Amino acid sequence: MIRDRWTGRVQMSVGRMKPSISSQVEHQPETVGLSPQDRKTLWACSRHLCAFPQCRRQLTAGEVDARRGGETLQTIVGEEAHVYSPSPEGPRYDANYPANKLETYKNRTLLCSIHHTFIDSEKGRAYDPDTLTKMMRRHERQEERRERISGTVRAYVADQYEVDDKVLFRQTQARRPSG
Prior knowledge:
Elements: E1 2-3, E2 10-11, E3 17-18, H1 36-46, E4 60-65, E5 71-76, E6 79-82, E7 108-111, H2 113-120, H3 129-175
Antiparallel strand pairs: 1-2, 2-3, 4-5, 6-7
């Protein structure tokens, strides 16, 4: 469950929002949270890392439970921040922003709790929606590139091991006593 800091609603794991007192405000649109597909896209594209520049904090933490046979339990420590707030009292609220786009992947970014608080301070004046969107897209491009480079390096190293193994195998055969 994730609590939206401005609306006070709790997002359930099925993508629904638990109503709160603030959801009864007449002019506030009713939201149901991210769809499971949008949530998966958001977390996958961010690679479970904070999108704030130069922040490399992991947004999930694993813990091994010895009582369950070494099963790894994942805890979500990141926060899904809105680019445009669904609440008139929230940061970067825009009454002209389409209500049907408030709870979509394009209106969210993943941040650690420190940077979520930082971008939302002063009602979000320091970080306008365009800045946040560019920051999120840049983060996603960087992480995709990092993953491609890492895959290339892994493939190269694997090829080198294969070549080295063949050389060692040939050397072993050459040193074997003839019989």
